[in-house]
Amino acid sequence: MKYGLDGLDFLEFKFSDNVLSDDKTDKEKTALQTRELIDLESLNEESVVLDVGSNFGIVVDELQSCGCKIYSFEPHPIFFSMLKERHADNENVVLSDSAVWNKTEKKKFYFKRSFERLNGGATLMSKKTNILDENLNKEVQCVDILEVVESINSDIDVLKMDVEGAEYEILERLLSSDAIKKIKSIYFEDHSRKFVDREWHTKKEEVLQSYKSRGIPLNWW
């Protein structure tokens, strides 16, 4: 779900106010936002986008208009099956059902409701407030964000993340390597509203300070 900008002044907002409009559904906002992203980052057939947390695949769908190369990661089994139906034969799209994380390992992936039903908000973070039953989980393969970035044999024009609370673990991991120098622009959705855990918020502040001290801008998604 897309929120307004309250409390998110640490992120740069590059989009038009239309992407915050109450007159549009979340899917419509994401589609519009992606179209604006193409212009903002001058994306074309030579560009590379790393889409971490592709969800329904709206970003992947909209990026087709510019012909860029897309690396899409989505561990939710239903969302991934939807992505495969539309893009399995698309040479410009590389699909993976692994969850991007700060290390390569097997990890529990928690669902708000049954993982056999279409619902968003699934997460690697058990302390997310909309995870009401920790037994409702499925083990998924996680892959280290550094391995992902280093496996792409080019610079990455855009890293977009919507990872339901894992964003600061991933951002912290990126800073531990020169791999971050391969990424031109970072856009992500902040999920602070879904966490009351003090440790989570402490991690967030530490990571934001690290990016600020290194002069690396972070953009709202």
How would you portray this structure in words?
- The protein is of the alpha/beta class and 221 residues long.
- The chain has one domain: Rossmann fold (3-Layer(aba) Sandwich), CATH 3.40.50.
- It has six helices and nine strands.
- The strands form two sheets. The chain has a six-stranded parallel β-sheet. The protein has a three-stranded mixed β-sheet with strand order 4-6-5.
- Helix 5 runs parallel beside helix 6.
- It is globular and about 45 Å long.
In quaternary terms, these chains amount to: single chain
Percent helix among the residues?
25-40%
CATH superfamily: Vaccinia Virus protein VP39
The top-level CATH class is Alpha Beta
Predict the CATH topology: Rossmann fold
The number of helices is: 6
Number of strands: 9
Instruction: Kindly report the spatial arrangement of strands forming the biggest sheet.
Output: 3-2-1-7-8-9
H/E element order: HEHEHEEEEHEHEHE
Give the SSE layout:
Blueprint (H helix, E strand, L loop, with lengths): L25 H15 L7 E5 L5 H6 L5 E5 L3 H11 L5 E4 L2 E3 L3 E6 L26 E8 H7 L4 E6 L5 H8 L8 E6 L9 H16 L5 E2 L1
Helix pairs in contact: 5-6
In short:
This protein has 221 residues and is an alpha/beta fold.
List keywords for this structure.
221 residues; alpha/beta; Rossmann fold; six-stranded parallel sheet; three-stranded mixed sheet; 9 strands; 20% strand; globular
